[in-house]
Amino acid sequence: MAKPAIIECPTCQHKVSTTATSCPSCGAVLRKAKRGIFGKLVIFAFWAFNILMVLWIWGGTQGAVQSQAGMSGAEAAGAAIGTGIGVTILIFVWLIGAIILGIMALLTRPK
What we know:
transmembrane helix
């Protein structure tokens, strides 16, 4: 394996590896870390998933509330229970999905 090239820090003239993002001596930023294309896709998927889940839960609960207006007491109670179960399942899916995508985002952090 080849050794990384050595450069001088523009701030303190300390010898630094070209793979370093900052100077270990003075802390000057040498290059900005960038996320790869897969990492960018993971971040996009993370945010898109979270936005989708918010809209899905909000839209579903609003639709259920509006549909209960013309129901009898027993029908409204059943619809409320069903809505509660559905929202609970969606929150569980949201939590699991956010954890998985969050871990993937951490694993593809900028280098």
